[in-house]
Amino acid sequence: MFFTYLRRELAGRRRQTAIIAIGMALAIALVMIVNSVSTGVRDAQAAVLESVYGVGTDLTVSQSPTPPAEGEAGGPRFEFGADAGTTTDGSTEISQSRLSAGPGSTTFDEADLASVQGLDGVAAASATLSLTNTTFDGELPDFQQSTQGTDQMPADGEQPAAPPQGGFDGAGGSAFDVDSFTVLGLDPASAAVGPLSAVELADGRGLEASDTGEAVAVLDAGYATTAELAVGDTIDVGGTEFEIVGTVSSTSADAATAANVYLPLDLAQSISGEEGMISSISVQAESADGIDALQAEIEEALPDATVSTQSDLAASVSGSLASASSLISNLGLWVSLAVLVAAFLIAILFTIQGVTRRTREFGTLKAIGWSNGRVVGQVAGESLVQGLIGGAVGLVLGLVGIWAVNLIAPTIGGSSGSDVVAGGPGGREMVMQAGGPGGGFGGAMPSAASSAEVVLQAPVTVSVIAIAIGLAIAGGLVAGAFGGWRAARLRPAEALRSVA
Amino acid sequence: MYTLEHVSKTYAQSKRRITALQDVSLTIPKGQLVAIQGPTGGGKSTLLQMLGALDRPSIGRVALGEAELSHLPDRRLAGIRAKEIGFVFQGFNLIPTLTALENVETALEPLGVSADERRRRATEALGSVGLGDRGGHVPSELSGGQQQRVAIARALVKEPDVLLADEPTGNLDEQTRDDIMDLLEGLWRDRGLTLIVVTHDSAVAKRAERRLHIRDGAVTER
């Protein structure tokens, strides 16, 4: 009888059923899409950040940046002596390569790594030193001739001294090139955790434990191509020639790796003058449950350090990816909540209206012996089925919406230190900034830049399906509860009398 | 048997108090056919609701056999209505989306009767009111007289002790009225029902064994 009555009511009151179901369907579809895109953005963040911090890094340890001391320059300083460079044909060519920690970045004692490794709950930990190599080279005129020419002022009637010669334009001019690339010093024996855990070998080999102390380098494949370098070539880092033994690329699609050049930590330290110093420690916890406790433990062991978790890590991503995340989590969430509340209200109002319209019907049923529970159950059952119909339609709509998002496949990408740029091919590309390596999550912004472009994929997860079903049931039950409450309050005598 | 002792019923309407029944005492033996007459607003329907366990008196006692209708909780009253009391209304009060057969079945739903048994008894009840071939029709496809027959079938399918009819012929033409009253009277005779009919119609009231008149909440015998 329950199902017969239910079926007849839903079929007999198609308009009400359709309005409630459509409202629920739209709300559920919207929530599904927002949830799915939100998951996609989180995955994109993870992909971007994995390329920076590596796979499996649960915590990073860094130190907050300190401003340079008074009189201390923020960037690298190039000093050339009087005899620097080689002079030919009136021009002096100078070149100098400096490897140093970037401005604003902070290094700290390598001994902290041992302190972290000694803590309970640490599965693995490795240190990195984030550096920038800046090369300054250029062409100057021979200043000797200039000096000779200006020592004596020409007397009246005398011809002025010969104009300066040499330099890049042959007339005493100067030209300089400044080139820089990011360098990451890391322990070749600890590639399981840290930036190199998120790369795959493109050519040659990676850094190995036996490379400690050796002048070998691994390059980001993208950078190697740009710089026209290949395995077997050499690269000048801080004035030392390193043999390129391999190139690597990011495991995440379209994302660059954490740095342009990877060196053994000890050599990076000695060349940059950062002996015994590191800029970040990547920590892998033994279990996901113990991350918070481990964070507290590290903070206690290293009071000056900034210890950040993956969630802090997500917050460190800035730019359009953060904007997308913020848009989804704020505007998207509120819009979908508003639509959901509106849909629920529509369902509730229509259900109550339906009960009011059916006062005589329910009064009659109570008069012939139907209990309150049976009447309430009938009303709630009808609402639940209306919700489920809405849920089914919403599920289909939501899946279509998610499919459309994946079909459009917007790209989210960016690089640290550059402004956000929106719009790309087809107006669908967004470029964003990501925190680079070594600075730690929310800690010092690194001197090494990282860029990443990730195609946004909105996944259909079990939770998305569960949300659709859950909302459909919840919507039906909430509307049914209100309608049932209204029906339960009907006194049979009054219900019959009101009709009379 | 019904027993009413000093029953009064007052309603609060806006800021006024309306006395629908005033110190009514009477007994209605089992198997009696009673007609209740009186002017509109005199308290006829209120008295019928007391008898039908749809409402409780403000003062006094109403009992159906051993059941104290004035004191039982709602759940027990619903049980008594489900088993022992059948209702027929002036407006038929059929569920518009259900077929005639399904409407009749609704009366058996609270009794926990199996689906097959429900269907069998409902079909039988419809046959007994002359609508065996109309079971698949929804109320809007039936005439007023046919709808009232369905309502009577619904009231009788559970084989109650009491049948309460509130203006059962009020919406019907004379011929149909007589047909319906013939039907009710026949069922009353055949089944030994206690049949209480509220009516304005003297022609209907004349068929009763006993006629009560109610005015301003007070009941008098005629």
How would you sum up this structure, described in words?
Chain B: Keywords: ATP-binding, Nucleotide-binding, Transport. The complex is a heterodimer of chains A (500) and B (222). Chain A is of the alpha+beta class. In chain A, strands 1, 2, 3, 5, 8, 9, 10, 11, 12, 13, 15 and 16 form a 12-stranded mixed sheet that branches. Chain A has a 4-stranded mixed sheet with strand order 18-19-17-20, covered by helices on one side. A two-stranded antiparallel ribbon of chain A has the order 4-14. Chain A contains 13 helices and 20 strands. Chain B contains 7 helices and 10 strands. Chain B has helices spanning 44-51, 74-84, 100-106, 115-128, 144-156, 174-191, 202-205; strands at residues 2-13, 16-28, 33-37, 59-64, 67-68, 85-88, 162-166, 194-198, 210-215, 218-221. In chain B, strands 6-7-8-3-9-10 form a 6-stranded mixed sheet, sandwiched between helices. A 4-stranded antiparallel sheet of chain B has the order 2-1-4-5, covered by helices on one side. In chain B, strand 4 (59-64) and strand 5 (67-68) form a beta hairpin. The radius of gyration of chain B is 17 Å and the shape is globular. The A-B interface holds A 1, 4-5, 8-9, 11-13, 360-361, 363-372, 374, 491-493, 496-497, 499-500 and B 45, 49, 52, 54-55, 74-75, 78-79, 81-83, 86-87, 89-91, 93, 95-98, 102, 105-107, 109-111, 115, 118, 154-155, 158.
